[in-house]
Amino acid sequence: MHIRLLFLFLLISFAAKAQNITSTIRGTIKDADTGVPLAGANVQLSPLQKGNVTDASGAFRFDNLASGRYFLTVSFVGYDKLAVPEILLESGKESVQDLKLGIHSGELAEATVVSSRPVAFNSVQAITIEQTLRYAATYLDPARVTTSFAGVATTNDQANGLVIRGNSPNSMQWRLEGVEIVNPNHLSNAGTFSDRATQTGGGVNILSTQLLGTSYFLTGAFPAQYGNALSGVLDMNLRKGNDEKTEFTAQAGLIGLDLAAEGPFSKKSRASYLANYRYSFTGLLGAMGVNFGGEDIRFQDFSFNINLPTVKAGTFTFFGLGGISSNTFNADTDTTTWEFEKDRQDIIYKNKMGAAGATHRVSLGSRSSLNSTIVASGLKMSRSGFLVNPSNVDEKSLFERDEQTKGRISFSSILTYRFSEKSRLKTGLYATWQTDGIASPDISSKVMNKVDGFIIQPFASWNYNVSSRLSTEIGVHNLYYTTSKSNSIEPRAAVRFQVSTSQQVSFSYGLHSQLQLQQVYISGKNQDSPLRDNLFLGPNKSHHFVFGYQKNFSHSTYLKVEVYDQELYNIPVSAANGSFSTLNLVETFIDQKLSDTGRGRNYGVEVTFQKLLTGQYYYVVSGSLYSATYLGADGIRRKSRFDGRHTFSFTGGKEFKSGENTWGVNAKILWIGGFRETPINVEASTFENKTLYEENQAFSLKMKDYFRPDLRIYWKKSRAKYSRTLALDMQNVSGTKNEAYSYFDTFQKQVVRKDQLGLIPVLSYRWEF
Prior knowledge:
Strand content: over 45%
Largest sheet: 22 strands, antiparallel, barrel
Number of domains: 2
CATH architecture of the largest domain: Beta Barrel
Structural class: mainly beta
Distance between the termini: 40 Å
Number of helices: 6
CATH topology of the largest domain: Maltoporin, Chain A
């Protein structure tokens, strides 16, 4: 009897304990155009089939929920239905959803998205923090998530520089809270041929994923509000901190040590904060004397977001991020180990980046809203190379020096006005003061050449629903640069026809332009007196055409097909006869006069079949076939550097839940056509003792196809007041030796092929409470 009572007591105690392992899903529902709260909106939670109705402030709440995956569906009379999948609820951490509904625009089945209406009719993908935590080998970097999308590849395993639809990584743009910023990456020289800094890529994003809300990745025919980009835009948005409960996250792994905190400033207001600090694990090992193949890699960063809502004056936010990183390579003092030219060099690379800004969002009534943002961002990169004397390793001589600076102060103000349920106008202005500097490559000179100027970009976009099936968008964007006195008026248009409640076809067109890279404006063999003619080059331009088809099979599975054509012109090429074009430029300097008479063409077809995470499994199968060519000053059409011909990606995973434990197995397989390179002139390289190319055979060699399988295994454990996740990521689990580039090695006196990274295991532990 006593044994039975004891057993019953233990059973009841265990059940009570299990019942305490719960958390909350809550949030607000607002009008996407005006920001006005929607009271009385219906909110359904699956798979529990629970329902709720928003209160006068547009708020809803589901308490005492077991940890796991949930699916929200929101509906309101006169508005599009919204489905929010893949919500991960963990014990010790609330899930706060700030959702926006758009006015009813047609008969398509409910939109399966993660915030408001999609920002474009075509070529747009949402990226969530949950994806960065679940997909294999993302290293908590939103840019690495994009390789699961059709038509996207990285230039090198070591970096997140993105080749989008055959365009150079320099053709994309980073945005924060809707405005352009400088390159927000640590170690922007990672994975480059010359070891010099790139303009858009790097080893890892400085902004911690802990601060990210839903970000948008656009790859072509952008709406009118986007400018100064040709291939893509990664628009990162910050989430606000929990405004009711203080929460913490700690994570340790090979990438770094993360500490995050969020919560309300007081119980009497909805003001909240969110902050994160990260220090690289490799930096800790470096401090203890451990290096990786002679390299000492270190980085650290801090980011924050403060949200201050008011009763009548709208919502203010103040945010910032900053990071420093370095990569030091020291030659081995044992000269008998030297095999390549780099082995006899000391190389010091340093990178500093920071950004700070504020936003103001205010409703101007039942029809309009005004959103304003100001962000200042800056970047400084330096690299010094020293040759070590083999007869005396303590004797070193400086043989190359690079230094680049970038600064941006960007302001935007956007007014949204809804004339009726069918008609909406969005108009605004982007104004940016920018400065770029490049130090003379001559080691005897200390001159820093700079170019400054204003970029003025007004725009207007009008959406009109002709009928319940036909939606249109017409807009115009203008790009004016005060330094080169160049002006580009760019029409944009899109139309979407809903064939049925589960199918739609769409077409988008846009004329897009992008200013030249700083090494194009500041160029010349002797940068003490740069070629001023290149300073007055106009922007690159491109006509984008995109035709899309989408078929929804359910609220979690869909097929999307897009056919695109990009006609590029006004491309700087050699003023003399030759094969050079800036379309192939990544990080090297320019030492010749250029003429903007070049052209290019990228076209292809992309297919994506995706099932979101429902029923404890998900997958994304995407691929593309494409062509990327260009015309140089010699009039010969050649395949461009990034003409890989095809991309393929499979991303998928399965979760297994048992009580308080959740196991997850995730995989990603990349199969990408090899990029192209130019043959090396061995005889000339031997004579000049540096890598020289057969320029008349530019990009005639195709590297081998790139193949990489990644694997992520995780184990989540829930407790009453916290949860923890133990994960193992393995990049390139097969150890495939993918080609990176070839160069003439001055130590071996022959052409050497360099491979990309092999197997990279990353163990991490995450604790949320």
